[in-house]
Write a structure and sequence with these properties.
This protein has 101 residues and is an alpha/beta fold. The protein is 46% helix and 22% strand.
Length: 101
């Protein structure tokens, strides 16, 4: 089981690479979609890590994967400046399980 990172920040890519997690720097929407679709086809990758900006940019693709019943887990992490939306975690939980906490 592998994890893979798609980030809009070079610093985050380098930091997670030091922790042993492979990743790519995606600066445009096209790159973000391309890498996301590519990694969803790799059955060795079970955890897909995306930064908040990547998630917001390709949200439809991420939600499609979640609704498809795929066994791959998509995790959103903050960018360099932290989460922009302080209620992000609550919204994420609601989207994931349909319950407002």
């Amino acid at each position: 089981m592998k994890s893979f990172l798609i980030s809009d920040s070079k610093d985050i890519v380098i930091g997670l690479r030091l922790a042993g997690i492979e990743g790519v720097l995606a600066e445009s929407e096209e790159e973000m979609k391309k890498y996301f679709l590519k990694v969803t086809k790799d059955r060795n990758v079970r955890i897909i890590i995306v930064t908040e900006k990547v998630f917001e940019t390709i949200k439809e693709e991420v939600l499609k994967l979640k609704k498809s019943g795929s066994s791959q887990l998509v995790v959103t992490i903050p960018g360099r400046g932290g989460f922009k939306d302080k209620d992000f975690i609550m919204k994420y939980i609601k989207e994931s399980i349909g319950v407002k906490i």
